[in-house]
Amino acid sequence: MHAQALSMVFQDADAAPAVHRIDEPIEQCEYLCDGELRHWSGPRQDVLSPVVRASAQGSIQQRRIGSYPLLTEAEAMDTLDSACRAYNHGRGDWPTMSVEQRIAHVQAFVVQMQAQRSEVVRRLMWEIGKTLPDAEKEFDRTVEYIADTVEALKELDRAASHLVIEEGVLAQIRRAPLGVVLCMGPYNYPLNETFTTLIPALIMGNAVILKPPRLGVLLHQPLLQAFRDAFPRGVVNTVYGDGGEVIGPLMRSGRIDVLAFIGSGRVADLLRRQHPRPHRLRCVLGLEAKNAAIVMPDADVELAVQECVLGALSFNGQRCTALKILFVHERIADAFVDRLAAAVDALPAGLPWEPGVRITPLPVPGKTEQLAQLLADAQSRGARLVNEGGGAVHHTFMVPAVVDRVGPGMRLYTEEQFGPIVPVVRFDDTAQPLSYVVESDYGQQISLFGEDPDAIAALIDPLVNQVCRVNINSQCQRGPDRFPFTGRKDSAEGTLSVPDALRVFSIRTLVAAKTSEGNRRLVRKILHMRKSRFLATDFIL
Length: 541
Ligand code: G3H
Hints:
Layout: H1 2-8, E1 26-27, E2 30-33, E3 36-39, E4 44-54, E5 60-69, H2 73-87, H3 93-96, H4 99-114, H5 117-128, H6 132-160, E6 164-166, E7 169-177, E8 180-184, H7 192-203, E9 207-211, H8 224-230, E10 236-238, H9 243-252, E11 258-262, H10 265-274, E12 282-286, E13 291-295, H11 301-313, E14 323-329, H12 330-345, H13 367-380, E15 384-385, E16 393-394, E17 397-398, E18 401-404, H14 411-414, E19 421-427, H15 431-439, E20 442-443, E21 446-449, H16 453-463, E22 470-472, E23 488-489, E24 492-493, H17 498-504, E25 506-514, H18 517-528
Parallel strand pairs: 1-5, 8-9, 8-11, 9-10, 11-12, 13-14, 13-21, 14-19, 18-19, 21-22
Antiparallel strand pairs: 2-3, 4-5, 6-7, 7-25, 12-24, 15-18, 16-17, 20-23
């Protein structure tokens, strides 16, 4: 694995099948504002791929695959004005449109989006180093998420299409939009996780400003026309550039009603603090995690290793849900660690489009150096690197490392590595992993491996109040997307699932009247003559 991995980065990416190549850099000069693709002729940010190549002089460099606009405060404020106009204090066409019509706009968008599948997939591979099957899965899962969201909204609307009468008061209760939503997704799922907030926000009648993550910008470009054509003017806007320059002013304006942000807690806090009236700002946040696995002495080692490898190293460990620390019972630790190292060493490394590849170069600048420091810190404090060549770094690439005998005092024990390092902690009493989880700053998910119902049940009950999903004999993961996805402590704020997201981006509002004869007559007339979109009992089939 070691030698293969090191030579891999020198491979000529021009030998990629034509369908996956980027022969000419993609110079993005447009952004979406007020229903039009505006041309930007100012400075642009170079986009460097994690895929490297040897220059004519023999030095190794990341390949430049294009650039995107570095907008300024002025353009950012234009996008805000555009979104505010489209929302128009809840009186715009979009927030007052019937649910059925809004669904039709979203469906028109999906048709155009699907035509861009191969282009988006290609850019996902080059911009963030995601493997071809994972990039395809990210795209398809997003399309499915949108279809499921449409169905969930129909259900929600049907449930709201009747009057309720309580204590002599009749009412119709529906969910209404909140205003202008700023959507910022993460680099590891730049399409999917951005859309899991963007689509529910839109379909509930909000106007949106989309800021793609710093890595994973160009893949959104093929969708700009679809946004422009499928939605009314100003309902979707995009902004690019340095966060301090373009996002700071948006937050300080006080005109952002919802911040949907998936990334680090540090940035989330920074953004939220800039809003002049934080009580008016609803935050939907997906933040860091350090999900643990607890491997009990009676665990099926083969299955546990298989799930832990998937959990720890899918997309090189760059998932918020990744297993980032494995607690393994002393009694099976030797066998487990041996199998784990063998399974990790067997993962094929290569460029994202190569068949069967599982480990790819990392897109975050300086990431391999930071991971190497984590590894060195652990080794200097007594941890043992198990797999030969593990942790070897070559520019943007790191050979996955299995590190045994990790423990308190090492950075790897508490810090989220978000990369291809698999720390193993040996334990002989479940009190140790339990107190680890209690004391952790994070609280997203956990995986338990074992067969004994008493032992597993004894762990489930204390753990469900520490994290938000306990996985049995399975890796941690977000899906199925209709399941609630959230976290405690520093890991999240708000719950995102297909049905929950519709609630997060809306608020319940009602029309109520005492049931006097006059009011009954009035309401009946409004209903029968279909005078109101809100006070209506029609429902979508
Ligand atoms: O990065 C966090 C993602 O939401 C994880 O999703 O578990 O489906 O990979 P996943």
